[in-house]
Design goal:
With 574 residues, the chain is α/β, with parallel strands linked by helices. It is 34% helix and 15% strand. The strands form six sheets. A six-stranded mixed sheet has the order 2-1-3-4-5-6. Strands 15-16-17-18 form a four-stranded parallel sheet, covered by helices on one side. Helix 9 packs parallel to helix 10, helix 12 packs parallel to helix 13 and helix 13 packs parallel to helix 14. The longest helix has 25 residues.
Length: 574
């Protein structure tokens, strides 16, 4: 069954490749995203790569999503199979995408293991280059399956990479090509040139590097754009149809100790209000709903300016979550005009003490006031995001969370009664997963019994509350995420089996003689960690110090990139 071609409503149409030379005269690149079309086409980073690659006059880039009909994956533009593309770019944003990515290769007739592909690159034996957050947070579980990974953000790398591939076309022997590529584009990680030695308990002893290759790969980040990243393609078949997305910045200055994005995107960069407003000029006529990405870390004055502009243009606002201390009168006025019924704030920590542990930087009063203001602005479904299993969590912290939820319910009931309709309070309660490159990378993942006990406690104490819903990820799924996020290339057999046959992942671990607990354990402060093959510029000493500060409940102020030299990213050039 061939893909139905979705209707595209932006100036960058789905016929973008056919407007060039004939397909056979171009370098064809398949852009692979391991999710169905409706999800993948709503991904702003994916759209950005697609647009940047197709700018090149001698390249045609076609999108390939996970098929939902069981058929082999084919490109959206011309319904070509994976085996027609000598080069595949793939976007891996989450650890959970890894089995789906391998399944797409298997379905498309491409050998998933890089070592099993032919030494010479060709259609059917493509050069596979991966990008996305996974590649520069912890690339090791993906390492056996790709030829290279872009370490960092694509904009500063992509142009040179495309020029190099064209200059090398027809492509020569794979390893020679990769060795030449890395000399020209240092922000590439080529896994075959690095060999990891482990002891019997799964501790990394040493990383041996092929002669002439860098010992670590420095992550690269983009400069502030003149026009903020924004939607390139809008399709009614996508998850966020008719929603024009605009990026407000990358990274976050707040320094929440659980948040990998706040560390791997350092230094934090907030796009100027001018570049954000310039992106709105690219919004197609007839699209009046705008989604802002990064509102949780945007400056209040910039948010107020953007909100005022959108209100004047008659645009309606949508967003995923908002910091409890970032609610301004201008924003509330725009929310009311947007008739936005659902909004979310993220206390994250169940108690005031745990919010200090994670360096969240908001208080109970911030949460109560923002909840009340959002409901007064017309929100009828208010979501609160919490984590359980945080470092040093006790039952007293959960008792305080129950009390906080009840206080929120009481506060939002006042504006709800005034308008004649009470709001629904939805709690999203998810297990905490310690991520690489955060101060909590040394901390173990909480046990399943502990997490299930916390969930049971909250259900018992909150189940009778009116207009309250509870949801969240199952501890078993979070456990697998912890294994994948803290794992290494020894997971290849597990991932291959998950992609080929699925099934119970615990049983798969037994068959390959791997202990999943070994990936979730406490890490030593002097222990070599697999993801340290990447160099983010963040000093290990800083992460260790932040970990100790967290356990003492000590706050760390937000990043001040012009003056701060604490973490090592913004080093003093003098």
């Amino acid at each position: 069954m061939r893909h139905q071609r979705p209707v595209n409503r932006n100036v960058h149409t789905e016929e973008i490749g056919s407007q060039k030379k004939k397909w056979r005269d171009l370098l064809p690149i398949g852009l692979l995203f391991p999710s169905p079309y409706r999800v993948g086409m709503s991904n702003l980073g994916f759209q950005l790569i697609y647009e940047l690659v197709n700018r090149h006059p001698d390249i045609v880039c076609e999108r390939i999503f996970s098929p939902e009909d069981g058929e082999p994956p084919r490109s959206i533009e011309s319904s070509r199979p994976l085996s027609d593309f000598p080069v595949l770019f793939c976007s891996i944003g989450f650890e959970q995408d890894l089995p789906g990515f391998l399944k797409m290769l298997l379905q498309g007739g491409v050998a998933p293991l890089a070592s099993s592909r032919h030494p010479e690159v060709s259609a059917g034996n493509p050069l596979i280059i991966a990008g996305g957050v996974v590649c520069f947070m912890n690339p090791e579980p993906l390492a056996p399956f790709v030829d290279a990974m872009v370490v960092g953000e694509a904009e500063p790398v992509l142009g040179g990479l495309l020029d190099f591939l064209l200059a090398s076309w027809p492509i020569i022997e794979r390893r020679e090509l990769l060795a030449r590529m890395v000399r020209i584009i240092p922000a590439l990680y080529v896994p075959w040139a690095y060999h990891f030695d482990f002891d019997g308990e799964g501790r990394l002893l040493d990383i041996q590097v092929e002669s002439g290759w860098p010992t670590r790969i420095k992550r690269i980040c983009a400069e502030a754009p003149q026009v903020a990243s924004h939607s390139q393609l809008l399709s009614p078949a996508a998850e966020f149809a008719n929603l024009f997305l605009v990026e407000l910045g990358r990274g976050c200055s707040r320094g929440c100790r659980f948040c990998a994005a706040g560390f791997i995107y350092r230094p934090p960069r907030l796009w100027s209000a001018e570049s954000i407003l310039a992106a709105f000029d690219r919004k197609p006529a007839g699209i009046d709903r705008v989604g802002l990405l990064g509102m949780e870390m945007a400056r209040k004055d910039d948010l107020a300016r953007v909100a005022g502009f959108l209100r004047g243009e008659g645009c309606l606002l949508s967003f995923s979550s908002l910091r409890a201390d970032a609610v301004t009168p201008e924003l509330l006025e725009l929310l009311a005009a947007s008739d936005l019924k659902t909004a979310a704030i993220a206390p994250d920590g169940p108690s005031e003490r745990l919010r200090r542990v994670i360096n969240k930087g908001i208080t109970e009063d911030d949460i109560l006031q923002s909840a009340e203001h959002l409901v007064a602005a017309g929100v009828t479904n208010l979501k609160l995001y919490f984590m359980i299993g945080l470092p040093s969590e006790t039952e007293e912290d959960l008792v305080e969370m129950v009390a906080l939820v009840r206080k929120v319910a009481q506060r939002v009931a006042v504006p709800g009664r005034a308008r004649g309709r009470l709001s629904t309070l939805t709690l999203s309660i998810n297990p905490f997963v310690p991520k690489p490159w955060t101060p909590f990378q040394f901390h173990p993942f909480a046990g399943l019994a502990e997490l299930k006990g916390a969930q049971d406690f909250l259900r018992r104490n909150l189940s009778g509350e009116p207009n309250l819903k509870m949801m969240g990820e199952k501890p078993e799924r979070a456990y697998l995420q912890a294994v994948l996020s803290r794992g290494d290339r020894r997971l290849a057999g597990v991932l291959m089996t998950l992609a080929e046959r699925g099934g119970n992942w615990r049983q798969i671990f037994k068959r390959v003689a791997l202990d999943p607990d070994s990936f979730c354990r406490r890490r030593g402060e002097k222990e070599l960690l697999p993801w340290e093959i990447i160099d983010h510029g963040v000093k290990r000493e800083y992460l260790i110090a932040e970990y100790h500060r967290s356990l003492k409940g000590l706050a760390t102020p937000p990043c001040q990139t012009e003056t701060c030299r604490r973490c090592g990213v913004c080093h003093d050039p003098s």
